[in-house]
TrEMBL record, chain A:
Database matches in Gene3D superfamilies: Hotdog Thioesterase (3.10.129.10)
Lineage: Bacteria, Pseudomonadati, Bacteroidota, Cytophagia, Cytophagales
Protein name according to UniProt: Hotdog family 3-hydroxylacyl-ACP dehydratase
InterPro entries with a match to the protein in the record: ApeP-like_dehydratase, HotDog_dom_sf
Species this chain originates from: Dyadobacter jejuensis
UniProtKB/TrEMBL annotation, chain B:
Pfam assignment, any one: PP-binding
GO MF annotations, alphabetized: acyl carrier activity
Main location: cytoplasm
Gene transcribed to yield this protein: acpP
PTM: 4'-phosphopantetheine is transferred from CoA to a specific serine of apo-ACP by AcpS. This modification is essential for activity because fatty acids are bound in thioester linkage to the sulfhydryl of the prosthetic group.
Taxonomic source organism: Dyadobacter jejuensis
UniProt keyword annotations, A-Z: Cytoplasm, Fatty acid biosynthesis, Fatty acid metabolism, Lipid biosynthesis, Lipid metabolism, Phosphopantetheine, Phosphoprotein
Domain Carrier: 8-86
Organismal lineage: Bacteria, Pseudomonadati, Bacteroidota, Cytophagia, Cytophagales
Post-translational modification O-(pantetheine 4'-phosphoryl)serine, affected residues: S46
Subcellular location field: Cytoplasm
Name of protein: Acyl carrier protein
Length: 138, 88
């Protein structure tokens, strides 16, 4: 498990924009992360986290996961950046104090561009699903 | 007769390709001709190529890689690639 101390080794974002606490599982075709919503989160409004934070959370889970996979394969960690976001569906927004669990599954890859499906949950409740193209730095 | 049947069958594949490409990339199917430039006709950027990969897999059940696209300039090149991948 990669915790919050080391997560910034894997993603370009820095506080207060880091929206992932820990990578709890990383396999080539599935990454999973957790994120606790704390009171100082800049995307909180009336104790509810905005959808842009959920999208950022999926993107950062993707980036951190790919970086881990590349490192494990003996390569240099690669930073991932959002190329595009499609098929966004927001089902519910999480609240202060809740922990988001996010699952990212890479579906297609062409060179340094990867399409992923992302979904985030609180418990078993689906918050958001989307597709993203992540551009990995060469 | 066998060769003719093969040609008819692949013409149908090409018609299918013209259908899903024109729908996805919002172009007139009439521009999807063997001699036309694929990238320019569909106005593809690097991100769109991933969509193309997804479309090919979903519609034709074949996988293509970045390497496959290296020599693709025209739709004719693209049809040849599909033909090869389909084992025609």
């Amino acid at each position: 498990m990669i915790d919050s101390k080391n997560i910034t080794d894997l993603i370009p974002q820095r506080a207060p924009f880091v929206m992932v606490d820990a990578l709890t599982s990383v396999e080539a075709h599935r990454f999973e992360s957790t994120f606790l919503i704390e009171a100082d989160n800049i995307f909180l409004s009336k104790d509810v986290l905005g959808e842009s934070a959920l999208i950022e959370n999926v993107a950062q889970t993707s980036a951190a996961g790919f970086s881990m996979v590349e490192s494990a394969a003996g390569g240099e960690p690669k930073m991932g950046y959002i190329g595009s976001i499609t098929r966004v569906e927001v089902h519910s927004l999480p609240k202060l104090g809740q922990t988001i669990r996010t699952i990212v599954e890479p579906t297609h890859r062409l060179d340094n561009i990867v399409m992923v499906k992302g979904s985030s949950f609180v418990g078993e409740v689906l918050l958001l699903s989307c597709e993203m193209k992540i551009v990995l730095s060469k | 007769m066998y060769l003719n049947d093969e040609k008819v069958a692949f013409d149908e594949v090409i018609e299918g390709i013209r259908g899903f490409l024109s729908e996805e990339f919002e172009v007139d199917p009439a521009v999807i001709l063997a001699e036309n430039n694929l990238k320019d006709s569909l106005d593809l950027d690097s991100l769109d190529y991933v969509d193309l990969v997804v479309l090919i897999e979903e519609n034709l059940n074949i996988k293509v890689t970045g390497e496959d696209f290296k020599d693709i300039v025209t739709f004719g090149d693209f049809f040849d690639l599909v033909k090869k991948k389909l084992g025609r």
